[in-house]
Write a structure and sequence with these properties.
Layout: H1 2-8, H2 15-31, H3 51-60, E1 67-69, H4 76-86, E2 99-102, E3 127-130, E4 141-143, E5 152-154, H5 163-173
Parallel strand pairs: 1-2, 2-3
Antiparallel strand pairs: 4-5
């Protein structure tokens, strides 16, 4: 019994308020790509998932949004924790997922393996939540477009080497 209670610890202490605050931070981040945001209300799981990724999952995942976990996270303790705190059900493949939680960028499937959505229904694509060790110190990526005044750069550590090429190909599909 003690082991199971440890696995379930670490969700939001005030789920309504904290999930709203995390969701608001996510919306701000999506409106301003390549800008770093702190998520002030973290979950603190005792399982191998980063606190920020856990907080994001607690804010956006529910029983209607299947989640795919990469190999590092596809363990019983993480499934139990996410199921308890979010009601998540789990996808068998990246293409079936509304959300994907990735702990190991090097082993991340190619973006085209995730649900792609369509021009009419872009919301049917997978949202990939990729745990990174830092936003500085990796290869620089430049961003331009809506939400960016001129040009923004970040240099994330932990992105798959092929990510920039895959991102450009994805963007070409949805100009």
């Amino acid at each position: 019994m003690q082991r199971e209670s440890i696995v379930l610890e670490g969700g939001f202490t005030d789920p309504v308020i904290e999930s709203q605050a995390v969701f608001r931070a996510l919306m701000d981040a999506m409106a301003h790509p390549a800008r770093a945001y702190r998520i002030g209300h973290h979950a603190a799981p005792s399982v191998p998932i980063a606190a920020t990724a856990a907080a994001v999952a607690c804010a956006v995942v529910d029983a209607d949004t299947p989640v795919w976990l990469d190999g590092a996270l596809a363990i019983d303790a993480v499934r139990t924790w996410l199921g308890f705190h979010t009601g998540a059900r789990f996808a068998n493949s990246p293409g079936e997922a509304a959300f994907a939680l990735i702990a190991d960028g090097a082993g991340m499937p190619a973006l085209q393996r995730f649900a792609q959505g369509t021009e009419e229904y872009p919301d049917r694509s997978s949202t990939v939540i990729l745990q990174l060790s830092a936003l500085d110190g990796g290869d620089a990526l430049a961003f331009e477009g809506p939400g960016i005044r001129t040009r923004a750069t970040i240099a994330p550590v932990g992105l798959p080497a092929e990510f920039p090429t895959q991102w450009r190909a994805n963007r070409a599909r949805f100009p």
